[in-house]
# Entry
Amino acid sequence: MSQELRAVEWTGTGLALIDQTALPHRTETVDVHDVDGLVDAIRRLVVRGAPAIGAAGAYGVAIALLQGEREGWTEAEVRAAVARIREARPTAVNLMVCVDRVMTRFGKGLDAVLEEAAAVQREDVEANRAMAAFGADWLLKRVGEDRPLRILTHCNTGALATAGWGTALGVVRELHARGRVEVVYADETRPLLQGSRLTAWELVQEGIPHYVQVDGAAAGTILRGQVDAAVVGADRIAANGDTANKVGTVGVALACADAGIPFLVAAPTTTVDLATPDGDAIHIELRGEDEVLEWAGVRTAPAASRGHNPAFDVTPGRLVTGLVTERGVLEVSAGELPGERLK
Ligand code: MRU
# Structure
């Protein structure tokens, strides 16, 4: 990709978000100038991916301040608006962490808030570049340096899902830059198709060979020996290494454990939540039933059926072979726990 993609961009008066619901067929941006618009964009997944919603939430504090100024809000009203942004989606801890970080500058005014939000965005890109190098080194050492790798990934973790470059897809991009990617299996990622719509689109932009496969194919592809390693992102990682990520991830991890291949989680430390002891304490977002009962707006399930639509699942730390952050790799299943090593 010649110019690095920015899913979240501050325009001076608001946010320009790449509309991730329209990709890959239309490349459009959504301009956000008010709190309702931002909350709606986060809930509808116009902007999505844990670090990207963290960056959007960080700038959301500025949006609340500016709207408050225009509409004569009290400080309490601005703070309540920021709290609504913070709670727009519950699972990705980056949203809360980034909003809270920027709120430490709230009393210093708009410029200080914008400066902190820009730092959140800049540091996320830096973290991604660092974890890409650590993750690529670790995988090559673990799987073998002699041939290009076949990598499976789930959901979208690229530039679109972050402030830039990507987490798990950032590791893939780094391996590709080193000439070490044979092929990527991109899981389709039901029900909103982040894999087939977004990951495949990014892989096409990067010229990385790939197959899109249905989520149900993942375990079989792994157990038939067609994959050397799986690399995924995360929305929240508990102190014991339990990892919440897009629904379907735990099945990939189980298959990797059975096949004896590495399951690598790539995430910045802003995704690690040391205050959450284990996966049971992670709030899993339950989304609308229609997302699974319909396909492209047409009802596919019987009218009487109910839908169960958890957006995420939790992979136990015992299945996480490696967790790569900007600080290096922890071998979680071997006992290197985030709660002890990332304090
Ligand atoms: O519902 P989404 O699309 O926001 O879910 C995103 C994921 O699950 C990603 O894997 C995760 O946020 C990591 S993005 C670098």
User: Anything to note?
Assistant: The domain at 8-123 is CATH 1.20.120.420 (Four Helix Bundle (Hemerythrin (Met), subunit A)). The chain is about 40% helix and 15% strand.
